[in-house]
């Protein structure tokens, strides 16, 4: 769930499937470390980047935390 939820309702269920995001997710999983994306469109109104950090338990991937930064 995005935080804060107010104003970010449209991000619920967002698919990170485009090539830039998918490549960063693959790298974060492989490296088991946070990874930054290349510059990309953020919500269609600006440009920025994302940080994906894998959530691991006993070296097993449970999911990811994502943060986006628009500029």
Structure description:
With 71 residues, the chain is of the alpha+beta class. It is built from one helix and four strands, in the order αββββ. It has one helix at 19-31; strands at 35-36, 40-42, 46-57, 60-70. Strands 1, 2, 3 and 4 form a four-stranded antiparallel beta sheet that branches. Strand 2 and strand 3 (46-57) form a beta hairpin. It is globular, with a radius of gyration of 13 Å. The model has no long low-confidence stretch (mean pLDDT 87).
In brief, what are we looking at here?
The protein has 71 residues and is an alpha+beta fold.
Helix-strand layout with pairing:
Elements (H helix, E strand, L loop, with lengths): L18 H13 L3 E2 L3 E3 L3 E12 L2 E11 L1
Antiparallel strand pairs: 1-3, 2-3, 3-4
List keywords for this structure.
4-stranded antiparallel beta sheet, single chain, 71 residues, alpha+beta, globular, 39% strand, 18% helix
**Into which percentage range does the β-strand content fall?**
35-45%
Number of helices: 1
Main sheet record: 4 strands, antiparallel
Q: H/E order of the elements?
A: HEEEE
Estimate the global geometry from the Cα principal axes.
globular
Secondary-structure content class: alpha+beta
Report the span from N to C terminus. Answer: 23 Å
Radius of gyration: 13 Å
Q: State mean pLDDT (0 to 100 scale).
A: 87
**Oligomer classification:** single chain
Number of strands: 4
Helix percent band: 10-25%
State the low-pLDDT regions, or none: none
